[in-house]
Amino acid sequence: MKELWVKNGLVFTERGFLEVNIRIMDGRIDSLIKSESGPLLEKTGPMIDASGCLVVPGFIDAHVHFNDPGRTDWEGIETGSRAAAIGGTTTIFDMPLNCAPSVTDLKTLMDKKEYLTSMSHVDYALWGGMTETNLTNSLELSEMSEGIIGWKAFMSESGIDDFRFVSPDGLKQAMQAAKDHNRILALHAEWNEEIDKLTVFYKPRLGINERRAFLASRPIAAEAKAVSYALELAAQYGTALHFVHISSARVIELIEQAKKSGVNVTVETCPHYLIFDEEDFINCGAILKCAPPLRPREEVEGLWDCIQKGWIDTIGSDHSPCLYSMKTTESIWDAWGGIQGVQFTWLSLMDEALKRGIKLKQILPLGTANVAERFGIAHRKGRIRPGLDADLVLFRLNESTIADKQSLAFRNAYSPYENREFLLKVKKTILRGKVIYDDQSGVTKEKLGICL
């Protein structure tokens, strides 16, 4: 049996941060032993000295687009997982679109699983795509459900030709299918009809700032309408629902009300909605284009209020990369909508929380235990607890990280986080008892990630 100790760190446990040593056996956490029991440890084997470090569970990012296979010039799981590991992420859930073809049938799902084998630095699971074109194929959906972490559907145009959004009537079928297959249905919730109408109105207008016109074409009202409709259906069908990248506190309040009424629903937001605002988009342009778009500063503050109230369940990067040329189009309407951020998800989130005086014990579960619980992997991931995978992150609060261009690990080295300084630093990332990233030696060449 292979033994490893992580000693002398301040470890985040279910009872908060404690001075305990972690004994790891064969890649799993064996026990936590109080640090004052030092003499008992003198004869132990290999050891990682975590002096001066906080030791937290490996982060789980339930929302990435690594575009593999088919669009590896945009990213690829090798570079995407490398960036994730550098940022402290040990598990990712890869979305079913932006790879080519999209994962909307069993053959594509199985081909993708086989293709990704031995290519990832971190553990991973795959989302399956539910679209207007595959909703009626109940046998195929049933077979796919055995190999996915959950279903993803869009209520508005996805931007990918082979991933059609579900109509209001189609969403009823999607709700029933997800319920029948006992899988979570994750929704991109914007009301397509309203976006189309507003786009037709704003896109050709002269005399209006083009970036402001884009923001006006995707208002909070379109998000709220889609969420309200989906909540009504989830209550009717008993579907487990998960809203991704919600951008507005007003919308999160709708979801919170539904939770209290008994709807099985959770909500994710992303670091870019917690840090950047619509004025940043006006000033910086397409590098901050996403959907839903960035919101006014009061909405950013409202999201932080929601975090402190416990209304937000998870944080996901929504890492959606592309070629840099796709961000430098003449018109903002033609630019790719997506933000490269997986490397900085947790650094940016914790940095901002600490600056606001929010305790890390309130922030950490949003990327660890909450995600594991919601998606059914809490028996392996999400906590520092005996019996679970030894997925750990060591970081220090007395060192900083500067996101300069040389440090970017994405395939295409650009990001809205470039040149920002975070007042903490990831020192090591450990996956199932093995160091996969060290701030001195970098990411290991060996790719240890497995499909969950």
Short description:
Helix content is 30%, strand content 21%. With 452 residues, it is α/β, with parallel strands linked by helices.
Record field, number of beta strands: 20
Coarse structural class: alpha/beta
Helix share bin: 25-40%
Beta-strand content: 15-25%
Question: For the CA atoms, what is the radius of gyration?
Answer: 21 Å
pLDDT average, as an integer? 96
Q: How would you describe this protein?
A:
The protein has 452 residues and is of the alpha/beta class. Helix content is 30%, strand content 21%. Helix 8 runs parallel beside helix 11.
Please name the defining characteristics of this protein:
alpha/beta; about 20% strand; eight-stranded parallel beta sheet; ten-stranded mixed beta sheet; about 450 residues
Topology of this protein?
Blueprint: E1 3-7, E2 10-13, E3 16-25, E4 28-34, E5 47-49, E6 54-57, E7 59-64, H1 77-86, E8 89-94, H2 106-116, E9 123-129, H3 138-145, E10 150-154, H4 168-180, E11 185-188, H5 192-202, H6 210-217, H7 220-237, E12 241-243, H8 249-260, E13 265-269, H9 271-275, H10 278-284, H11 297-309, E14 314-315, H12 345-355, H13 360-363, H14 369-374, E15 392-396, E16 401-402, E17 421-422, E18 425-431, E19 434-438, E20 442-443
Parallel strand pairs: 1-5, 2-6, 7-8, 8-9, 9-10, 10-11, 11-12, 12-13, 13-14
Antiparallel strand pairs: 1-3, 2-3, 3-4, 6-15, 15-18, 16-17, 18-19, 19-20
Helix pairs in contact: 4-7, 5-6, 7-8, 8-11
